[in-house]
Amino acid sequence: MTKITKSAAVLISLLISLNASSESLWEIYKQAQRSDPAIHEAEANMMAKMEAKPLARSVWLPQVDLSAGLQHSEAEGRTVVGGRPSGRTDTTSDTTTWNFSISQSLLNTETWRRLKKADKEVAQAQVDFQAAQQNLMVRVTETYFNVLAAQDQLGSEQAAKKAIGRQLEQAERRFEVGLIAITDVKEAQAGYDDAIALEIAARRALATAKEGLREITGDYPETLAAPGESFPLIPPDPQIEQDWVDISLQQNAALESAKIGAEITRDNVKISRGGHWPTLSLDASMGSRDTDLTNKNVPPLGIDVQSDLESDSKQIGLQFRLPIYSGGSVSSQVQQNVYLHRAAKENFEKVARQTERETRDAYLGVIAEIARVQALARSEDSNQTALEATEAGYEVGTRTTVDVLNARQSLFLAQTRYARSKYDYLINV
What we know:
The chain is α+β, with helices and mostly antiparallel strands. The chain has one domain: Outer membrane efflux proteins (OEP) (Up-down Bundle). The chain is built from ten helices and four strands; from the N terminus they run H-H-H-H-E-E-H-H-H-H-E-E-H-H. Helix 5 packs antiparallel against helix 10.
């Protein structure tokens, strides 16, 4: 999200004017937290990425191995003297072995840098999840008010159809007594047919809006709480545009993630340069080998011989390694990570500029929506007055059916735009 964070506190304050008997925006948001696949995916990704720290730390901890083995073998042999067989020997052996080893890294700059990088990867994972939570707030808010706007639109179209239907009936009665021409009836009928088409479109728009909310919450909404007829139009806080930008640049999760991403790629450059650095480890091991050996018909006496061979071993030492040449892979990895770091820095600058642009647009949007709501409220009043005057003129014969239809359509359009403007303001606030 690249606008200033819509925090839970803002959402709660917005709900004060909503009808408590219906599902409120806060309840829908809590339901989305439980059901939205996108937020669950983001949480799982965060938990997976947070394992980077224990994985990086594990390299510095002792590496302990225990192995054991059991082997049985049989062999047959013949003794030949002067070209003639002089005896046969059968040999069997059973061998058991075990070995215990431990290795502790003492010097490895690459793994130390990876441990430091893991801290940043964990921080980035947490910031990415925070961004997903912010995005969920925005998606819920937008879809919630889209449903309310679609409901208002449908209600307006139904009211328009009902009013135009009454006008059609009135026109038919006036035509029957010879007060108006048939053209007035046809014009009223055309207006009524248009109203039916608009109602059908509004029903589809409402169904689509509800599907958008179901996609997030996993369920179709029942009755949604709507804002009251009058609620305060709060100006931007802070009121200075640059302050909005400064706050957004400090708090924007996507920008913070891009910043950490650039730092991670810089660490990758340092890590890849360590491909020729020496390593030192302390290695110790101990083990045992026990072999039971049986030889049958051992020449020249043809007797059986049994023996038991046992050996124990203990080792401890330092292992030093200095990579000298690896076919140029180290240099290539360094250059590759340098380019990736450059790309990450450019991405950070891109996100910063995008954040500033969208923040300024959001600031101006709030101001514009306040003025728009106020202007459309006046427009609704003016269109109501105009309709009443047109209907009065129609009664005395100075206005036609078309005039009344146009005035009525203008009023319903003004009412719909006014209702939509209030929802747009709440989305942008």
